[in-house]
Each structure stands twice: as structure tokens, then as C-alpha cells.
Amino acid sequence: MTIIEKLNKSEGKTLFSFEILPPLKGDTINSVYENVDPLMEFDPAYINVTYHREEIVLKPAGNGLLRKKIIRKRPGTIGLCAAISARYKVETVPHLLCGGFSREDTENALIELDFLGIRNVLALRGDSVKGQRHFMPEPYGNAFAVDLVKQITDLNNGIYIDEELENKHATNFCVGVAGYPEKHFEAPSLNIDIQNLKAKVDAGADYVVTQMFFDNASYFSYVEKCRDAGINVPIIPGIKPFASKRQLSILPTMFHVDLPDALALEVLKSKSNESVRQIGIEWAIEQGRELLAAGVPALHFYSMGRSENIRNIAAQLF
Fold first, then answer.
1. Would you give the DSSP letter of residue 69?
2. N or C: which end of the chain has fewer CB within 10 A?
3. Burial, 62: exposed, middle or buried (Cβ in 10 Å; 0-12, 13-18, 19+)?
4. Residue 238 counted as domain residue
């Protein structure tokens, strides 16, 4: 069942979902199962699996030359989705990026997902690689998420890159896209960012999942502005439990989100990361209760590879 089908059939019930990271290269799939297992008791409607571009450094290769060395990689998003689906009998949503993929690479990935019976994808532009000031698409690749959505929609209409391809058929992917309640950091304004989101929906996106936020007022205002702009698909709030003092600087810098004063001050007063994690759990529970009362379509949690705090939150909400 696709995500939009699940949302449409939920009869007003708020669904539970979460996102996981593939294991780092060299780790095993058991590290993923250890984080998924504790959350299955809450009957997740689906599980997102991220895709991460490799991180590279240039090292001397002699004679004044440099060689590229991959220092960090999380492989196996598609395979991991298939493994999770088989093990837990739950829908999975692989992330697809523009960055690092040509249009042909993207089509091949979609064909593989279609073979495996995985009918849901989250279409993202992705970030620039380390050392690049601006996002650079691959040669013959998609430059923006809207272009990626259009390519997926083309496949859903039976349109492939090679028009003479034999035995081609129309796929049936459900497409999610990202939304930013505090605007994407590259957008000149929130209104223009919302117009960019509308372009993705008009191109075929079925639903929106938001970047993390810590003030529900930002989400409610964002949804209202999206509706005023003619965006009528489900908008799912994304929740990230605050977990350490370091995140006071990491989250605003890396994810370009604001932290409410009340949360930041409580964290600053804490004397240990254990107490910070508890603050984060309690804050997310309160966020969740208000969002549940508002009848949001789903609560989507960003696990960042750890599930214990999400389990504590879900136990209070679901």
C-alpha cells in the first residue's frame, strides 16, 4: 500500500512513522534492526530510509597529483528497504537524491525499486558535497527536487529516457517531498519557498513531510500558508527529539532551524546530556500531544540512528 493510500484510509487517525540511517560502510544490518525492533510495537505505518552521499578528501598521490579517497559512506538504501520490508512486513520509503545521480542512474534506481515492489519514494535535491559552496548536479542529472519529481511522474506515465526501450511499463510510485516550516535556507523568502513546494506538488508529489521544528506554531502557520497557496496534499510534521548540549549549535547550523528560548534555556541549565535527553523527550511529547489534538495526518520522527528516546515518546502518544 502506498503512503498516500494509508493516509487516505486512516479515517482521521494520526499515523506513526520514523526515519532511519543506513549503517556506515563496514557495519552490519543488525545495527539497524536493533533500532527498529523497539519501535515496532507502535505499528509504524512506514519507515523512511535515508540516502547519504559519500564524503571525500583529496590525498597526495605523488608527483604533485591528488587522489580522491572516500572516507565516509552509508551504502545500501534500496537493499535495506527491501530487507526491512521482508523482515517487518512494513512499507519502506527510500530517499532518492538529485545529488550524485545522473537521470539514467535515477531511472535505474526506480526500475530496481519497481522490481522489488517498493512503491514509495521521498524525492529530495540533497545537499552539496563537502567543499562545495553551492549544490552542483551531476552531468545529465536533475538540478532540483521538482525535476526529480517530474522524472518519477514520467515513469508513472510510462515515459522512459530511452523512448525505444522494449517491455517498458508505467510504474506506480507514491512520491513524498520535503517542506520547510522555517523555509529552506537557500530560499530568498518563505513565500517563494512555498511556491517552490507548490511546483513539486503540481509536478506530481503526493504528500509533504516537513523538516524538523521545535515550535508547533511554525508548523501550523506553514500549513495555513501552504493551503492559501493552493497546496492541498497532506503535510506531515517531522519531529526530532533534542538529545545533547552540542545540538544547541549543531541543529541551527546544520539544519537551519530555530530553537525556542524556553527549550534552549532549559538545555543550558542542564548539567549532563542525560538530563538534556529527558528534556528533549518531554518537549517532543508536548509537541506530539498538541499535534495529535490538531489531527495531523502522521507524526514522523527523525531517529538519527537511535530509537530509545523515540520509543519513550511514542509510548506516551500512541
1. E
2. N
3. exposed
4. yes
